[in-house]
Amino acid sequence: MRIGVIGGGIAGLTAAALAQRHGHEVTVYEASREWGGCAGKFERGDYLFPAGATLGMGFEPGGLHDRVLRHLEETVPVRPLQEVMAVHLLDRTVVYDQDRDRFLRELENKFPSEANHVRAFMKEMWRDFETLRPLFERLPALPFRSRQDVFVAVEGLNPQLVAVAPKLYRPLQKTLARHQLSGTVFEQFIDGILLDSLQTGAKDASHLLAAVALSIYHEGAFYVEGGLYQLAHALERALRRDGGTALLGRHITSIEPVSDGWLLTDRRGRLDIVDTVVSAIPLEATSQLLTGKDAKSFKRQYRRHLSRSQWGTFSLYITLPEHVCLNRPLFQQVYTEHLPSGHAFLSMSAGGDVLRTDKPERTVTVSTHVDLSEWKDWKQRAVYEKLEHEWTERLIEAVRIGFPGWSGHTNLMLPGGPGAWVKYTKRPNGAVGGYAQTPRQSLFHAASYRTNLPDFFVCGDTVFPGAGTIGAMTSGLHVARALGVTL
């Protein structure tokens, strides 16, 4: 079967590499000049920056990335992290330890007045995750769209799941209130953790997905040498080694049905015919490639999802002198009142990571969520530059908090607003991360990887299960299963 995969991010490359190994004839079309999408990289002079954070999960034995990479006979260089990150609140710093018991003691020490409530809350989250673990390991696809989807889910069922069924549509705010933690500094602490992983804060997040998000670091957290783009490169290597084709700079502009499959046309007018299409770009971007009744059918199926809002991100890429970075955590989350979302995430290169730089410096990626409505006029140069300056100053303040010994000197500082994500990763309007994982927008209300169009699949962060490299790879795996792959 000839398969055309549009988009060379983690989701598309996962589906492509697995399908090629299964015996299909796969071609990946990536519009940019880099693999990885939002988990890609870029270079400036002697420095390499991951486009996003470099905190890796799923590389532990039995983790999703580990399972896929072993199946493809590939590896990614990672270092396990005992201390996952430091979270700087306004009046205290919490060390997020990979070990559950140490982390729980840290929470009790840093939130002494709510210690009993915090312990009970975390125990409930972890208990619910353990109940969900069989499903998490089997990775069923929601919402159900085929017998295979139902079979994978049912086979992973256990009697304990009955206990969490009533929480399927529970927002986390109810759980916080029941544990008397609403409005506390502890809620502020988990708010940032969930915003990064579920694209929504603590109050609106799905209880069950929050249980996963607040447990996943304890499964294993890793520093990826160079950055998470290494995962994309490993998938692309496996694809090519098995005979697949991977094309950079091939921007597909239309998808049309023809008598013997689907016709793909790129911006230079080059044509390819494939039997099956896998669109690994956002749903909004996919809908723009289709025409006529196919576009209407696609938009009708995903109308609720296409109407949902998404976050954007503003990033600052900066170099810091080595002495400023010594004994500082590789990953930090900083709370500051200067940021509308309340927090920024700082990701620093490890000492000795010569893939990032061989100078006595570190490269740091700083990012925060932004409301895209504020950037609606970003195509006007003066407006964009003003916003860029304002947001740069806000993130510089976050850097000062994370690196208190920094004098302000840097050899390189590059801002990256929504326009950069449009230009370099082709994200519509600069939206990243997919949809907020609220009870009414996640799980059975998420977007399916199976479309109503024949031999046409979708995957990526706007498709179930959502954001992050684990979510993206999972959606790619769902497509691969539909193409006959077993893992």
TrEMBL record:
Under InterPro entries, the record lists: Amino_oxidase, CrtISO-like, FAD/NAD-bd_sf
Instruction: Give the top-rank taxon of the lineage listed in the UniProt record for this protein.
Output: Bacteria
Cite the Gene3D superfamilies for this sequence: FAD/NAD(P)-binding domain (3.50.50.60), Protoporphyrinogen oxidase, mitochondrial, domain 2 (3.90.660.20)
Looking at the record, the residues that make up the Amine oxidase domain are 10-483
Name of the featured protein: NAD(P)/FAD-dependent oxidoreductase
| Gene source species | Exiguobacterium alkaliphilum
Phylogenetic classification of the source organism = Bacteria, Bacillati, Bacillota, Bacilli, Bacillales
